[in-house]
Specification:
Layout: H1 17-34, E1 37-38, E2 44-46, H2 47-54, H3 59-64, E3 67-69, E4 75-78, H4 83-92, E5 102-111, E6 123-132, H5 137-153, E7 159-165, H6 172-184, H7 192-200, H8 229-244, E8 250-251, E9 263-271, E10 279-285, H9 289-293, E11 300-306, H10 307-316, E12 329-333, H11 338-351, E13 356-358, H12 365-375, E14 379-383, H13 385-390, E15 392-397, E16 403-407, H14 411-416
Parallel strand pairs: 1-5, 7-8, 12-13, 12-14
Antiparallel strand pairs: 2-4, 3-4, 5-6, 6-11, 7-9, 9-10, 10-11, 14-15, 15-16
Helix pairs in contact: 1-5, 5-8
């Protein structure tokens, strides 16, 4: 139906905007404190960017991308995530030229063809940060801390931080082989998706919501037995720095995240009251992604947070902000002669940064007063023939019903005092 939005999308209505503005305000304040600058990338990219960046064999690439052929016979995809786009912008615009460490953040729409559910839509919004150009584990710790502080600054409790390491190209192949051997013996018990993952990406089996509940998963090999010295030392550094910052965390050996580009650190912040889909933020290090997309080998780390899920968490905890404050004054014009006078008053108020409205439908005085009360305005500013002749305004306080006539020049001071 033309009157319904496509499945998996949602209108953000005026009485819901306050929550979005709160998140965006917190994001910009916190990123400013941490020295991250905003970047805005296109909503769609060449499909190959995500195929190479995210990795074929992942659910995102194989099942969830919105891909189409444009009029120039090019394969185009609505961005399912923004890290690959940020890396492409980093390379195309040579952001690496003037600084060793480039620190960026973004807020925007992403698109995935997935089963819609609470806080998880086909068009959804993410806040993310990316730090490109530094391999020190202190950058991993800073990224995790930024995500943690953002969620805590909103007043959320029951948050849990889980971290892991997924190794690097030197040691992860050993772990992949161990997983392949282990899960091959359990192949008959694996779901259809995981049987396909067995040859393409066995690490993703650890993250499966179906097989993850089965008994054999508990005995799956742990990556810690396969780590090279560099990865082991890097992970130890991250843990030490988080502890120094006073952040509690738990090590989750089955946390691998859903994208192929992660190396070394992976993390997730969960809000337990959301249930099975409890993750509200997550990310990690992706030292190989920039080279995969076409740049020089460059270390990088980042995270993304789903804004719909955070708003849902705020609602569950009773922290949703009240709707945006309505107007201060409603101008009521009594009769044709007062229309121009009323409109000038309306304009003057707005030019002095006082929110104001009036009726443009030429309703009766009684109907306009009802509209003024319904608008949520604190004052009704009533003008008729007498007010026009005397350059006055009758000011009625809609909360107390008190009213008085004052010179029009005194109206701003009266209603903001």
């Amino acid at each position: 139906m033309l009157t319904n939005a496509p499945r998996g999308t949602k209108d953000i209505l005026p009485d819901q905007i306050a929550g979005w503005l709160l998140l965006e305000k917190k994001i910009r304040e916190l990123c400013g404190l941490y020295g991250y600058e905003e970047i805005r990338t296109p909503t769609f990219e060449h499909t190959e960017l995500f195929q190479r960046g995210i990795g074929e064999g992942t659910d995102v690439v194989d099942k969830e991308m919105y891909t189409f052929t444009d009029r120039g016979d090019r394969s185009i995809t609505l961005r399912p995530e923004n890290t690959a786009s940020v890396v492409r912008a980093y390379l195309q615009n040579k952001l690496y030229a003037n600084a060793g460490l480039v620190k960026l953040f973004y807020v925007g729409s992403m698109f995935r063809y997935d089963r819609p559910q609470a806080g998880r839509l086909r068009e959804f919004h993410q806040f993310g940060v990316e730090a490109l150009g530094e391999k020190n584990p202190a950058v991993d710790a800073e990224i995790i801390l930024l995500a943690w502080e953002f969620l805590n600054s909103l007043g959320l409790t029951d948050l849990k931080l889980k971290i892991n390491t997924v190794g690097c190209p030197a040691c992860r192949p050993i772990y992949r082989q161990k997983l392949t051997e282990y899960f091959t013996a359990e192949a008959d018990e694996l779901c259809g998706d995981c049987r396909r993952r067995l040859t393409k990406n066995p690490l993703r089996i650890l993250d499966c919501k179906v097989d993850g509940l089965k008994d054999f998963m508990e005995d799956a090999p742990k990556i810690e037995t396969c780590l090279c010295d560099e990865c082991r030392e890097h992970f130890a550094g991250v843990k030490t720095l988080l502890t120094a910052a006073g952040v509690d965390f738990a090590i989750d050996p089955r946390l691998v995240r859903g994208l192929d580009y992660y190396t070394k650190t992976a993390f997730e912040i969960q809000y337990a009251p959301l249930g099975a889909q409890s993750a509200v933020a997550g990310g990690g290090r992706y030292d190989g992604l920039i080279r995969e997309i076409g740049g020089d080998p460059t270390p990088a780390v980042g995270f993304a947070a789903g804004l719909e899920r955070i708003l849902l968490a705020l609602d569950l905890q009773g922290l949703s902000p009240a709707p945006t404050k309505k107007i201060t004054a409603f101008v009521v014009a009594g009769g044709e002669a007062a229309q121009v006078y009323a409109f000038k008053l309306l304009t003057d108020l707005r030019r002095q940064n006082i929110s104001a409205a009036m009726d443009f439908g030429r309703k009766s005085l009684k109907a306009q007063m009802k509209q003024a009360a319904k608008s949520g305005a604190k004052f009704a500013l009533i003008v008729g023939e007498d007010e026009v002749a005397n350059s006055t305004v009758t000011v009625k306080n809609l909360e107390t019903s008190a009213q008085e006539s004052i010179p029009v020049a005194q109206v701003p001071d009266k209603i903001i005092s």
